[in-house]
Write a structure and sequence with these properties.
The protein is α/β, with parallel strands linked by helices. It folds into two domains: 187 residues, no CATH class; 57 residues, no CATH class. The protein is built from seven helices and nine strands.
């Protein structure tokens, strides 16, 4: 399973496009990964931290407010009163119980264990490894533990990270400042793949055999703080030429293009 690991300070945005690209009604039902899609520019939505779930979690877990005060509860309770079930809850009281039990248990579990992949959660439940994990294996738990249920993201044409599914886990992990959140990539835009290919060609100039005899640049190498590029290593001369190469093609550099020395 190939995963991208999202750092706490990596910008993440909501996806402006729905899952109709995959013939589904919500991203949670999309179980195909690492696809390359060729479509018009997708762009990006608002930052993840502006979302109703993250703001509500911050109110409760950081500021100590009650769930009833949060925009998440108020919105969901209004939907339930209008006749729509939310997270399998059909009354505001059931919604509040879920928030106070399931979400708060998830927070405490991640606080204690860090971020666990679904396979790790399943193994620990089978081994009865701690009461904080047991609720997730209960028959009444409203979610599913399986490999395809990891947090889902995508990359748009510029390489921006687009959030798709798993906002409770992702929001809590961001609040806790966990160092690297593993996510499955549903799709990458074709234009991002073209940009990445150029960078891979540029990075090839700084291979392990670099040196005066090979004709390749030697000296300190650099990497880029982009989750889809962290495996690449660049010589300083090659790195300095990347902005001009992108500009010549009418491309913007990724927002988090911050080279750092690795050797």
């Amino acid at each position: 399973m190939h995963l991208l690991h999202i750092a706490p300070d990596c910008p993440v945005y909501f996806c402006p496009r729905g899952p109709s690209l995959f013939g589904k009604t919500n991203w949670g039902k999309v179980n195909r990964f690492d696809k390359v899609i060729d479509c018009p520019a997708i762009g990006r939505g608002a930052a993840f931290e502006t979302g109703r779930v993250f703001r509500s979690f911050k109110m409760v877990f950081v500021k100590g407010r009650s769930w009833e005060e949060t925009p998440l509860y108020r919105h969901a309770a209004a939907q339930i009163r209008a006749g729509r079930a939310m997270w399998k809850c059909t009354s505001p009281e059931a919604l509040l119980r879920r928030l106070e039990h399931d979400v708060e248990t998830l927070y405490r579990s991640m606080q204690a264990h860090g971020f666990l992949l679904q396979e790790q959660v399943s193994r620990r439940i089978e081994a009865s490894d701690g009461p904080l994990l047991q609720p997730f294996g209960a028959a009444a738990y409203p979610s599913t533990i399986r490999g395809s249920h990891e947090i889902k993201i995508a990359l748009n044409e510029a390489g921006d990270i687009l959030f798709l599914d798993g906002r409770h886990r992702f929001g809590i992990a961001r609040l806790l400042g966990l160092p690297a959140i593993p996510c499955r990539v549903v799709f990458r835009h074709r234009d991002w793949m073209r940009r990445r290919a150029l960078l891979e060609e540029t990075a090839a100039e700084a291979g392990p055999e670099a040196g005066p005899e090979s004709g390749r640049a030697s000296g300190p190498l650099q990497s880029v703080l982009h989750p889809d590029l962290v495996h690449l290593r660049f010589s300083k001369p090659a790195m300095s030429g990347v902005p001009a190469a992108f500009a010549a093609r009418g491309w913007d550099l990724p927002e988090y293009w911050h080279p750092r020395e690795v050797r």
